[in-house]
Amino acid sequence: MQTELLTHHEIDAALEAHRVPGAGITVMDGNRIVWARSSGLRSVRGTEPVDADTSFATCSMTKTVTGLLFMTLARDGLVDLDTPANRYLTGWKLQGIDADSVTVAMLLTHTGGTSVHGFWGYTPGVPVPSLDQILDGEPPANSPPVRVVRPPRVEFSYSGGGTTVLQKFVGDVTGQGYAQLVRERILLPLGMRHSAVEMRPTAANLALGHRDGVMVRGGYCVHPEMAAGGLWSTGSDYALLLAGLSDAVNGRPGALVPQPLAARMITPTFANSACGCFAQRPGIISHAGGRVGYRSHYVFDVATGRGVITLANAEEGAIPLQALRHTICARLGWDLPGDPPA
What we know:
The protein is built from 10 helices and 11 strands. The protein is α+β, with helices and mostly antiparallel strands. It is globular.
């Protein structure tokens, strides 16, 4: 492995050209971190630098965590991925076109025909809706209701709304909240000590969000839609998640879930959409993420354990970090596609 895949000047220049205050880049090979760099500031209003332990919003990269969470539920016999979600949901139910046929797997792969692409979140201090209010689009929710608006399993249509139905689902099935389940079933077993699923991040070393070179009001938006985008993490912690998934796919002893479930998770069922991730080529998974003030991305080869994770505390971060990722892959001779929907 080269000592410097990117110089500090290359990273800083790319970020400054797009007014991105700070970022973290993590490179994996053989399921290990082989190169990592942090750059810039946690906020334009301060002087604290981004370092290896700085927590970023991973945005929709959280959906991969949700996919793995459901594999653990299937492992324990709590969920059948091919059973309609409405058979498990209590109280609130999916409504719309053939809603009773929408399975758990369809919601994980964005093929259930559900509405609502993504969520804006809420400025700290304003009223935050309950999960049911979000799903029904009722005040103070700032998003429309989640409904089945097209026939299930006919087409791919990215739906953070469908993932939010899964958040409701895990509460109904287990009696526990999504954040608690992720902590118990994913974060603790994989040793992700610098990660948490939270509406309001509590990490002291936090990268605050920016837009157009200005910190967003309150520093970040509150997201009660936690299954769709609620993970706060570091590049090194997220690498542990990907390594754990690789261990499972390759059937290694002590893996978090059995090999057949891990293989199913990363295998597309429609277009390139798998359970919480995308696979443009077999075994190479990826997910992008975006929310107010942040951009994120990973691409990972489960066979070789090679991957690149990028996190930025600005909405303009996707372009420079994509360019830097492509530069890294070119210099290493890696062919890792992966620019899916956020």
